[in-house]
Design a protein that fits this description.
The structure is a homotetramer of 435-residue chains.
Chain A (H helix, E strand, L loop, with lengths): L5 H5 L2 H4 L6 H14 L8 H6 L4 E2 L4 H8 L11 H4 L1 H14 L3 E3 L7 H4 L10 H16 L5 E7 L2 H4 L4 H17 L4 E7 L2 H12 L5 E5 L12 H11 L3 E5 L4 H17 L5 E5 L30 H13 L4 E2 L7 H10 L1 H4 L22 H4 L4 H6 L36 H14 L1
Chain lengths: 435, 435, 435, 435
């Protein structure tokens, strides 16, 4: 074994036999386990976290499915759950194989106010999309050791200054589907303002199911400048049992932010579990708005994509910071999640099914035809490598846009009709002036 | 329409109506067209190319499926066709939606000598894998206007100095499946030595089906130093009707190489169609071995991934160079193929189904919530942007490994048993010394 | 006039006539002014600053003379003042021509304890070096409108934990020369610990001459973690009339630090003038030790050198921050100082003599032979340009060494004998382990 | 001795004693040698080269003196020789101390047609400037073991299509001064067209003095596309005993070009000595016009400046390529020349005077106060280091301007009056369109 890992040195005898085990065998074993397990035997999310287990999340669906041709960048809505269920099911399966313990329903931006935005019309109703998403998540979750999490996210209504009642009613409509479909727990995610996240948590708490809440913020705090520590304490007080961040920032920044949250919660004398689902993009140059403000968002982010080795570092950093719910968001592909599961295999005691098609730290390269590629089948090669961009005309960092507008600004108001040419021209002019 | 394209200015009245057409409608239209078409009514590959039509290829399967968890980097073998048909089918479908006119059977490295390599054993036989791959390609090709191409590629037998007869027998075994499954045409691809490619073409020609042949070479020629022009002329003489390159180099380098091939063919008084299926990675720093020699291969290539805008430039460059079969190889995701189809929409007269989830030059961003992102819904924004890597500690170029060993070298010999620890240690030492 | 500057738009009628004025004319005018001025008629440093005038400092001598072959990197001692007076005189003259109002005596590290360090012996005594440096500074200062400043800097004695009396005695020896040579004012510069700087100020104050004090610190404060604001307040209380930073950080970081100092002084209800003499190297990646910790220090800093346009931005930023004593340190060449003087020409009312060989914002290029270079004779060209490194194998940022040792650590102790091979080997091993 | 060099391992016992020798001692020895030598005892340039000795050239004066405030970028004329002789003398001295065996007269662009260009008038006549330059070079050459070389360079007359007689008359005027001042040999340098260089060589040959000729070309050849090999053969046939390149390209490119010249000369059955005086800027991105076409020329080239270690590599590469006259051009500072002399100390048998202020491969750092800097006092540290730019918003390569105009184009015509605003505006427009 050329590529050493904590797992390989610590794992028990049973795992030692893995070498000759094929993917097929692993799947058969998994199926047997599932068949033998009594219905409802899966441990709940809080049971796992209370027991100190690592929970591997999944990756973001809108970016992954945009690249596959099923989601439109701009509206970012999840109608594919109803329109192209085979594509959504396949992505769920890939994350499951990669080691995910949670199948999030593909219900991001599936609130009615968001589905009909700026000229984007839908063939399916919001309810149909939410229901289809629940069914797909449950179907695949049942193929392995995964739970279903129903998710709500920030609403255009809030940005447009609708009342607390209106915003809460929006969450309630999605929640009704989650209750009907009996998801295992709930996530309020991708909130830029802690106030809106509190409202979401308050609504989700009415079900009695466990509630997780993540903000899309960095060390500077939410868009009103509330610090990560204060945000986290407020979310715990609102009823969230798991708090953390998702999206908008890279793993380094996100782990740092969750650490600040943990300090805030502990300083307030509260308790919580911690969760991190960052981008799979390097964003050292972001301001408080995260990658939305980077000039490369959303169509030229490729050079920033994390490697699997970057992901192993993230998994270890998150674990060391006391975070136990470790997943991903935009940019994550199944192999990124697999890297999290491989890094934390010593702690979890097993490798995911998908690792049969990998091998720790590149050990699969032992079978490569070219000898100089076989010479890369080792951990220290990949850990030390500083990958080149192949783009000598490009810089390493960008200056983010910094329009600095937030809730209440005219340009952020929800409108049903498409953006007009006049509206666009005004925006183009404003952007060009800023250069 | 903020984002101008040749298509939008040149397209005919029928296309003009596309605006409000949804993906669903397009699929219905496609289904109607398919139903109405008599069996076998699809135009063959040579009919299309002779008529001057653009043929959009698909992308590489091994890299895409490695990221999804179904292919092992190192052996790079296609057993997933039999093991996980749903994953392979889904990828075919995504390429079809993106605009591909060709479904290549997922039979890369599916020769028997390659399937059993360096300790990598298979649950399925070579015949089972090849058959499953043909069935999947045909199933999805029948869902749209695509042809099925059976593909063979370089063999370990050739590198191990087996006889011409032995090597040809290896190709023949795969070919028997292709004939039985009645693929529409054949591709001999990914050859580093023109001699082996000639042998492959000679075998494939025996079927009477059209034959395409691509080498994985750059402007320096094949690994024996035969120039691209001479390579191409030899392949045409061997019977290939379509010649070009695939894999190993980025689009810029590959288009340049095919231009050299075209000059060679014309200088020899011959005629052919031209084909280009490059990497989706920027490789300005490669030597003659292509991206295999880059230190980032295969696990840290992320910063080199082309954007969709890079792809539009590639499609235009290839078209302008007289290349009409334009596709991709390793690194291509469905959205990369869609970009080719969008760039060449004026020439083809239509957009692919997947463009319903995109919009030319980022016009889908008109529906984004944040006004400064709506300000990016225009061509000149994306064309001018020089995307940052987000990696300030990394360089922009690498020094390739340059072991310079090829056919006949001891380190390249095929062996069934796994690479031993002693063998690995020798390779690691050699690699470290080279640094 | 293609290249616009605030100076050109704001300058008065007299300056408007500058166009056809040659360098010779300017020099003649300067000579006339000098001849007409009564002896001792020059305004003192505090008179100038109290009147709100901009004072342009000079650049660092040790780095400039190291490149010219007269200073040894490592010891960094100023024996060239006695050994090669023509080289030191010439550099003074170049800074004077570039617009400097201050000639600092080349007495950096000219304390006796530093001159005899780790095997570095001297042909001249400390007193001889200090006296020669004073004579040279005075000679050139008298050729223009410049003052002579005698400078002391941090001592090995302090790092080696000598007593306050011992350290003060060290400063006193240099000061005796400054008094004898009647310098115009005094500078305590390049202190890493505010405590040692306070001691220096207390000694310098005994002369009754104006005293400036600069620390080589960034926003994180001195090496004991005392904040810039607190450092500055302590220096003012110790008697310094001018406070600020020099060396160790780039202009962006240094201006930011002086702003923090200003806030600290004002918060303490004190008053002072502010001074900034940063590096001419970009150092966004520094930690609290500044560029000493960068792996490129001191022999591979070239890619970080600021352009003249970067310097104009620095001069403007410093001015806008309320800093009026604006100069430079290591890395500054005469053209860098000239850029400061050109940027602040509107405020000062005149251009330096050296600008006769330049022209604002590249306007001298109007005379270039090649038309595309004449096309660069304009401000917006140079302001927008992002200069390439020409080093595709190099990164844009470095990880600083962070040994984190300071005053009192065994490795920092002064020793007269040369570093032994054993001592060196221990250091090399320690450094390699850290990689 | 931590930093090993070929010199240190190969040098003889006498050199071994160098350790404790101070700069002063070396200078005294040099003075003794000079005093003892009979007048005219210095070996001529051809004697040295015929004997296989290494001749170290000097660096470029226009760029070095531009930074010091005595030359105007744009006209790049050498009036400082008459206007500010102390500055020119000092630079000569620094190159001498650094190890230069040649003092080139500062007569670049000192032809009468160039001195009065586009509104740039002179206080001194061409003859005065040329004479002053000869006197300064001789004065300093006499202080050490250096020869005086009189230099002519390309003329505006040639670009403006003046007759061969006119162009030759221009060279003749400078040559008359060189003969009167009895320089040791002649250099025709910085020619972009081999034809003009041939004319220059023919004129210089009339004196009977040795003639060197260098073109400012790269591997693509002169601006008419004449290959380096053909250029060199033509120059040798015209009478040059030493041929090579200077300016316009970095050391890597220049050594490569001189190798091509050597092959051309040898292929033509001729014999010559070879010479290389490249830029001190990295220019991997240049086209045939060299660094003039880079967008950073001439005011933002800083990030491209070579380190002393880059220079040692250049000296070794040039030596290994059979080049024996090894010097520099624009961008070279004295420490760059010293690096050449240090690298070739084993071949030359001695270190230059200036090395007393350096120490091989950074060994002077043994005396640094900070232990982690002392840990850098070794060759492998500096050889492996990839220096960062400190500029994360900048790329590593540029797209050169490529106006592609040469001799005869209207925009290149000489004109005495200043470039008018209309002319400038036309150029700015043309440049902006090209972006």
């Amino acid at each position: 074994m050329p590529a050493e890992s904590p797992f390989q040195t610590q794992r028990d005898a049973a795992a030692e036999r893995r070498g000759p085990v094929t993917a097929a065998t692993i799947i058969i074993i998994i199926i047997i386990i599932i068949i033998m397990a009594p219905a409802g035997a899966k441990k709940g999310i809080l049971e796992r976290l209370d027991a100190g287990e690592v929970v591997i999340g999944d990756g973001g669906f809108v970016f992954a499915l945009e690249k596959r041709g099923y989601v439109k960048a701009g509206p970012w809505t999840p109608e594919a759950a109803a329109e192209h269920p085979e594509a959504v099911r396949q992505l769920h399966r890939e994350f499951l194989r990669a080691g995910s313990n949670v199948m999030q329903t593909f219900t991001f931006y599936a609130s009615d106010d968001k589905l009909e935005n700026r000229g984007h019309t839908q063939t399916f109703t919001g309810q149909q999309i939410n229901e289809a998403a629940c069914d797909l998540a449950r179907e695949v979750a049942d193929e392995g050791d995964a739970l279903v999490a129903g998710g709500v996210s920030q609403t255009p209504s809030y940005l447009s200054c609708k009342s607390q009642d209106d915003v809460k009613a929006t969450f309630k409509k999605q929640l009704d589907v989650f209750v009907k479909k009996n998801v295992d727990f709930l996530i309020a995610e991708y909130f830029e303002h802690v106030e809106e996240a509190e409202w979401a948590v308050q609504v989700l708490k009415t079900t009695g199911k466990p509630v997780a809440a993540t903000l899309c913020i960095g060390p500077e705090g939410d868009l009103n400048g509330v610090s990560p520590g204060d945000c986290a304490a407020r979310l715990v007080k609102a009823g969230a049992q798991i708090v953390g961040v998702n999206c908008h920032f890279d793993p380094d920044t996100s782990v740092k932010t969750v650490k600040m949250m943990k300090e805030g919660v502990e300083k307030a004398g509260l308790k919580a579990h911690y969760m991190c689902q960052p981008l799979a993009y390097h964003t050292p140059d972001c301001n408080c708005q995260g990658f939305i403000d980077l000039p490369e968002f959303p169509f030229s982010l490729e050079p920033r994509i994390l490697t699997r080795w970057d992901m192993q570092k993230y998994a270890r950093d998150a674990y060391d910071a006391g975070i136990r719910y470790i997943g991903g968001c935009c940019g994550f592909e199944p192999y990124h999640v697999r890297a999290l599961a491989e890094e934390l295999a010593p702690e979890r005691g097993f490798l995911p099914a998908g690792s049969d098609k990998h091998g720790n730290w590149g050990s699969g390269l032992e079978m490569h035809t070219k000898p100089w590629v076989r010479a890369r089948a080792r951990r220290d090669y990949w850990e030390k490598l500083k990958p080149a961009s192949g783009r000598p005309l490009c810089p390493s960092m960008s200056m983010p846009d910094s329009w600095g507008v937030t809730k209440g600004h005219a340009d952020l108001m929800q409108q049903k009709e498409a953006t007009s040419q006049e509206q666009l021209k005004a925006l183009f002019d404003k952007a060009n002036k800023g250069q």
